[in-house]
Amino acid sequence: MKPRDELFRLKSFEVEEYRRKVAGIDAMIHEFNQMVGDLDHQITVEQKRSGVSDVNHYAYPTFAKAAIQRRDNLRTSIAELEAKLAATQEQLSEALEELKKFERDADRRSDQANLDQVVANIHLRVS
């Protein structure tokens, strides 16, 4: 296998790895957002059940306080994942650009090799 082919495979693998990472992070963000929605619903139900919606009230449900803390932690995690997603998407874009550049260079080399062959054939016919 030519070093060029190995480099192309390496670049292609790198692009696919970044795509998998982006998809995984995106799925986690989606899942966490669903969990936040579920917790919001549970908090609302618990507040209605207890009749207390003021978090500072002495009778505020412990379950609702814990759910609020969990929801806030998830929101923090979502923000961190979104930052990680943006960075990974940037890395993916860079890897795709490198792969495209490599493909263009390979195409130019191939075209040049074909032209060299045509010139050699013409030169043989003339001789």
Number of H/I helices: 2
Strand composition percent: under 5%
How many strands?
0
By helix and strand content, what is the structural category? Answer: mainly alpha
Overall average pLDDT: 88
Spell the H/E element sequence: HH
Largest pleated sheet: none
Shape descriptor: rod-shaped
Number of domains: 1
- Model regions low in confidence, pLDDT < 50 over at least 5 residues: none
Residues in helix, %: over 70%
| Computed Rg | 29 Å
Quote the distance from N terminus to C terminus: 35 Å
Short description:
The protein has helices at residues 3-50, 62-126. With 127 residues, it is mainly alpha-helical.
Q: Can you characterise this structure?
A:
The protein is mostly helical. It has one domain. The chain has helices at residues 3-50, 62-126. The mean pLDDT is 88.
Task: Give the topology.
Layout: H1 3-50, H2 62-126
Name its key features:
0% strand, rod-shaped
